[in-house]
Design goal:
Layout: H1 4-16, H2 44-47, H3 69-72, H4 76-80, H5 89-104, H6 114-134, H7 139-162, H8 164-174, H9 190-219, H10 221-242, H11 250-278
Helix pairs in contact: 5-6, 6-7, 7-8, 10-11
């Protein structure tokens, strides 16, 4: 018998103990969670490029030949050989790079400053982003683009640390957004997201019920004031008839009547405003 009692005690403790479920359970609330779409690091949304490169006229001459006097008097067939549309893409990239560097360079021959380097990287990144939209399976170009984006972030981080005014100026000129890496990495999980959605749902439900309760109280204001005025008048008249001290004055009754008039005017104005908005 002594050997059986410990077993009975442990079974009783298990029955009385509250069982806590440690696994996921199906909620009665109609809350649906959809995992957010994973955005590649080469996309403009992640790299911080807010705009694309402008379209270039295919009839534009290559860099270095736009001021050639010989081409001004040359035949159209000869000119077509030096046009950007009839030459490899790297000539167009050089043209883009030269145009963007001229907007940020410190002097006419500046091609090695931090601003000029960032402009050249931005052209490279945006050209390759356009290329990756058409050829998403090109892994070699994808790796090159990732490396260039990280290199530009490194340069921007350096400029942000040592010259913040120039950092803001270059971001405005190149139409960029600096996105530093997060200080603490955090996984997006279904359980945590459902908890947040449940909190939002409960908060919205609470606000909805409070708004409904407020509406019912506002609807009862006018009948409540009318009933209060009648009772105050009745109590005052009874006190006067019985000859006892009067506790309700005419000013109190007049004050409640003014409140009732103001409330009715406010209700009429709100109804008129709602009608005009619906029309």
């Amino acid at each position: 018998m002594n050997q059986i009692t410990p077993i009975l005690r442990t079974s009783a403790n298990l029955v009385n103990r509250q069982v806590v479920r440690q696994y996921a359970f199906k909620s009665d609330l109609k809350i649906k969670w959809v995992r957010p779409e994973k955005i590649s690091c080469i996309r403009p949304e992640k790299s911080g490029d807010c705009s694309k490169l402008p379209a270039v006229n295919s009839k534009e001459l290559m860099l270095g030949f736009n001021k050639s006097k010989e081409l001004e008097t040359a035949d159209d067939t000869v000119k077509s050989l030096f046009e950007l549309g009839n030459n490899p893409n790297f000539h167009t990239s050089r043209y883009y790079s030269d145009q963007l560097i001229k907007e940020v360079q410190r002097h006419q021959l500046d091609y090695g400053s931090m601003e000029a380097k960032l402009a050249g990287m931005t052209v490279f990144i945006r050209r390759y982003q356009q290329y990756m939209e058409e050829h998403p399976r090109d892994k070699k170009r994808k790796v090159m683009l990732k490396e260039m984006i990280e290199k530009r972030k490194k340069f921007l981080k350096y400029l942000r640390r040592w010259d913040y005014r120039r950092f803001e100026w270059i971001l405005e000129k190149l139409d960029l957004v600096y996105k530093p890496p997060p200080a603490k990495f955090h996984w997006i999980t279904r359980k945590e997201s459902l908890q947040k959605l449940t909190d939002i749902h409960c908060e919205n439900l609470k606000q909805q019920k409070l708004a409904e309760y407020r509406k019912t109280l506002e609807e009862q204001q006018i009948p409540f004031l009318e009933d209060a005025i009648k009772k105050m008048q009745f109590v005052r008249q009874e006190q006067l008839d019985l000859g006892i001290p009067v506790t309700i004055t005419e000013e109190d009754i007049a004050e409640h009547k003014n409140k009732l008039i103001e409330l009715k005017q406010f209700r009429d104005e709100t109804k008129a405003a709602i009608k005009t908005t619906n029309i």
